[in-house]
Amino acid sequence: MSFSPAKEDMSRHNLESGYASGNSSEISIAEVYFTKPHLKFINKQLQNLEPEEILQWCQISLPSLFQTTAFGLSGLVTLDMLSKISKPHAPQIDLIFLDTLYHFSETLALVERVKRRYPNANLHVYKPEGVETTAEFEAKHGERLWERDDELYDWVAKVEPAQRAYSELQVKAVLTGRRRSQGGKRGDMDIVEVDEAGLIKVNPLANWSFAKVKAYIDQNNVPYNELLDRGYKSVGDWHSTQATKEGEDERSGRWKGQQKTECGIHNPKSKYAQFLRDQELKKQGEALQQALQTRLDIDA
């Protein structure tokens, strides 16, 4: 394999000058990285923008951007807004759906309606590793795993498939449907967050209330889950979701009676968070070793 002297000089210049550019080698520059002051500044600027404006900022600012969705109301609003942003050179934002194999039939029917309504949306579906059906999942992990070990269930049904999706699709940033009005740990979240592994999470509808989301759905004739009309304001797996009562938080029907508000993907104390920390330490070690080797090769 030949190596251009001009590129070698450019690479040497970047290393010696301490600066990096778009022509730098991959190990010379982080793909997406925010310092804490920069992240604070960005959130301050985005705080007063409308979701459509936040989404436009994401499209031009964040490479390898995907939308993670369980086809809840907020995610559907985001999908509809993206479909209406007409920028000729805007990158396609694909969707990632984690099929736990325990979704309501109404949710799976909604997925098909959404695919018909938004034919240009590219959907990536990830299931628990090594299985395709509920029967296969239970043959591998046993029945009612969520009752026997809910953290293990979260890991195999949601967290590991999410990690696998991020790895295989080379995801660097994701759009989520989380909002502050959903309560719990989401009450004080920022619009842009960065997890332990450096994954950027953007919550474009963070400032919106449930009423505002529902109004957008109705006004724009966006397809939604039929369970909403039966009192299910937030929908997850059938075994851990109930309808909410008047006056309850919209996510109060999730894991009712348990001290739990997140499935593990957004929980910094979960097994997933520990996994991410371990992966990040490994990644940093490998990057340092590769950078040192490159330095030695250039000096030689």
What structural class do the secondary elements suggest?
Answer: alpha/beta
Number of helical elements: 10
Helix content: 40-55%
Tell me, rounded to a whole number, the average pLDDT.
83
Largest sheet composition = 6 strands, mixed
Report low-confidence residues grouped into runs of 5 or more.
Answer: 1-18
- Placed side by side, the strands forming the largest sheet appear as 3-2-1-4-6-5
Find the count of extended strands (DSSP E, 2+ residues).
6
Strand content: 5-15%
What is the H/E string?
A: HHHEHEHEHHHEEEHH
The dominant shape is: globular
Amino- and carboxy-terminal Cα gap: 18 Å
Radius of gyration: 21 Å
Describe the protein's architecture and organization.
It is globular and about 70 Å long. Mean pLDDT is 83; it is low at 1-18. Helix content is 43%, strand content 7%. It has 10 helices and 6 strands; from the N terminus they run αααβαβαβαααβββαα. It has helices spanning 5-17, 36-46, 51-61, 73-84, 105-117, 134-141, 145-148, 150-168, 210-219, 271-299; strands at residues 65-68, 95-98, 123-126, 173-175, 192-194, 200-202. With 300 residues, the chain is of the alpha/beta class.
